Amino acid sequence: MLEHITTLPAERVQKIKAYLEEHVRPHLERDVSSYARGRERVWLQYEWDLKERVFRQGLKLGKLWRFCKEIYPEAQLGLISRGAIGITAHRDDSYANYKAYGINLGQCKWQYNLEYPGYMWVPNSRKINPPEITVMNMTGGEVIRFNCKNLHAALECSEDRWSINLWTVSPKFLDALKNQEEKSDEDHIQL
User: Fold this and answer.
1) Of 22, 146, 134, which is closest to residue 72 (Cα–Cα)?
2) Higher pLDDT residue, 79 or 31?
3) Can you say how many angstroms the Cα of residue 10 is from the centroid of all Cα atoms in its chain?
């Protein structure tokens, strides 16, 4: 499943990018994923630790998170990336539920291999075989909804490209997220 939801107006894209440059860029770190080695990124709300397989505290910016919730009201966490290093074909890790939203803020070639129809797992006998491959030449402002368990990639990205991806958490990891939320709440208690 791949759906083009809307395209943000160019003026709004520029305002969002200016905000990200000022408030998010100082928090960017190098990606450790083998699919995006060296990409600059930061997690919103909560970070999924690929190695330890736990949630950690992510970047919390109220104004940015309100914008993300306009796009995907159910979102529980997000990932912001910046720059020319995209990500090769991959499926999002098990923390992520099937439905994901992507907000593209710059030029890139986005590739999507539709194998799982809808937003769920299906047995091999119900997969689309061969997968339907879609390549989108994005210029900035595109908002898409997709099944993140289908192979997808962001390639040939411009140096000034920003991307925001949003997810809900897979049911099997909701307790882990709740534990991190409680821990985060405890960290904010003033004595």
Assistant:
1) 146
2) 79
3) 21
DSSP string covering 107-163: -EEEEEEE-S-SSS---GGGS-SSPEEEEEEE-S-EEEEEETTS-EEEES--TT-EE
Count the alpha carbons within 13 Å of 72 in the hemisphere toward its beta carbon. Answer: 22
Could you give the CA distance from residue 149 to residue 97 in angstroms, rounded to a whole number? 8
DSSP label at residue 173 = G
Cα dihedral: 85, 55, 67, 156 (round 10): 10
- Give residue-wise pLDDT tens across range 121-135: 899 999 999 999 999
- Written as six digits, the tokens of 139 are 């210029």
Would you call 32 helix, strand, or coil by DSSP?
A: coil
**Structure token pair of residue 53:** 């397989």
**What is the rounded distance in angstroms from the CA atom of residue 182 to the CA atom of residue 179?**
5
* Domain map (residue ranges) of the chain: 2-180
Using pLDDT thresholds of 50, 70 and 90, give the confidence band for residue 190. Answer: very low
Phi-psi region of 28 (alpha: psi -120 to 50; beta: other; left: phi over 0): beta
Query: Class of 2-180 per CATH?
Result: mainly beta
